[in-house]
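With this grant's support, we have settled on a layout for protein records. A representative record follows, to show the layout.
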Amino acid sequence: MLLLCLFSLLLSGAIAMVMLLNIRDLAIEHSGEIGQTAAENSESLVLDMTLFTMERQVESNGYFIDGGLRTMVNSVNILCLYIEDLYRNPDAFKPRPFAYYKDVAEGSTEMHWFLEPGLIPAHSLGAGDL
């Protein structure tokens, strides 16, 4: 009986060794294919991730630029309203002289020029100057 158990154990060990060698040979034989498949899958995944990231970046930049342009349009619209009001009611906006900054009292909130008086243009602006 002991001999039968020993024989079974040796036979099982031999079969296991043959199977392990077969698995090793198959792994060596197909390792190039597995590596190639992994490389192709990795390349595809990296390209997909790059495209996704670039799409999000372009979309984000578009929203940022759109916000800037909307702000600019709003500023131009406000400026247009002021200019329209200026030309519809020219008497409401009378020219006022500005003092040279050295002639303004300290602590005053009065508007003044920082340029030398000789550098300040003497004429007032008309419609042709806009």
Remarks:
- DSSP finds one helix and two strands in the chain.
